[in-house]
C-alpha cells in the first residue's frame, strides 16, 4: 500500500512511519517539518505541508491507498480554544472522498466520544480540567469521521509513553471493556498499521492500552 501519515514527524505519527516501512508499505510522511524527519528509506517520501491547507492536503493524497491521521497540539494550547482536530479533519475528509481514498485510521484518545463514559470517577475531574477543551474537539473530530462514509477506524490510546513496541498491546473493542491504561506510542502505531488491510476493525473505535 501507499500510506499517507498525517503528522508523521513526531510521536505516534513518526512511529507509524517506521511501522509502515517495516511492514513493507510505501510511506508519505506529511507534516509542517517533514523535511526534518531523520529517517531515510527508499520507500519513504517526506511531504512538507499544513494539515489546514486544502492544497497541501490534496497534493499529499494523490496516489494514496490509506491515510493514518495523527494530530497533536502543544501543552500550552490545552488552556485556550481548541479546534485543530475538527478543522483538519474537515479539510481531509472531502478530499479523501474526491480522490477515492477510502481507508482512514485516526488517533483520538481514551476519553473522546462515547469512551468518556468509561473514564473513572476519580479521574474525570482532573481529566476535564486539563484536557477537556482538546477532548471536546477530538469528539467533534470523531463525529465528522463517523459521518463521512469512509472505511474508518478510530484508535483511542490510553496514557502514552515512549519505548519500543512490545507486541502486547490490548485492543479493547467492546464498550464494556474500555478502561484507561498506559501504552507506548510504538505499540499504537504498530497496531494501526497492521490493521490497515484488516476489515475486522472497520467502523470500530477501539481503546488501546498495554495494561
UniProtKB/TrEMBL annotation:
Occurrences of domain NAD(P)-binding (ranges): 7-198
What InterPro entries does this protein's entry cite?
Answer: NAD(P)-bd_dom, NAD(P)-bd_dom_sf
The source's domain of life comes to Bacteria
Q: What is this protein called?
A: Epimerase
Gene3D superfamilies listed in its UniProt record: NAD(P)-binding Rossmann-like Domain
Amino acid at each position: 500500500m501507499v500510506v499517507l501519515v498525517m503528522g508523521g514527524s513526531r510521536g505516534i505519527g513518526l512511529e507509524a512511519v517506521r511501522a509502515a516501512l517495516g511492514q513493507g508499505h510505501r510511506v508519505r510522511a506529511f507534516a509542517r517539518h517533514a523535511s526534518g524527519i531523520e529517517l531515510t528509506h527508499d520507500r519513504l517520501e517526506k511531504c512538507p505541508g499544513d494539515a489546514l491547507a486544502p492544497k497541501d492536503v490534496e497534493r499529499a493524497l494523490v496516489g494514496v491507498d490509506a491515510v493514518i491521521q495523527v494530530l497533536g497540539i502543544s501543552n500550552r494550547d490545552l488552556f485556550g480554544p481548541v479546534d485543530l482536530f475538527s478543522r483538519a479533519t474537515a479539510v481531509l475528509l472531502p478530499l479523501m472522498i474526491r480522490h477515492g481514498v477510502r481507508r482512514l485510521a485516526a488517533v483520538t484518545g481514551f476519553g473522546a466520544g462515547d469512551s468518556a463514559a468509561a473514564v473513572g470517577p476519580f479521574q474525570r475531574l482532573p481529566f476535564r480540567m486539563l484536557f477537556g477543551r482538546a477532548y471536546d474537539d477530538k469528539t467533534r473530530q470523531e463525529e465528522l469521521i463517523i459521518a463521512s462514509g469512509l472505511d474508518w477506524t478510530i484508535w483511542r490510546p490510553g496514557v502514552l509513553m515512549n519505548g519500543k513496541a512490545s507486541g502486547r498491546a490490548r485492543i479493547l473493542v467492546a464498550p464494556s471493556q474500555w478502561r484507561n491504561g498506559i501504552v507506548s506510542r510504538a505499540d499504537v502505531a504498530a497496531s494501526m498499521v497492521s490493521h490497515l488491510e484488516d476489515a475486522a476493525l472497520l467502523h470500530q473505535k477501539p481503546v488501546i492500552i498495554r495494561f
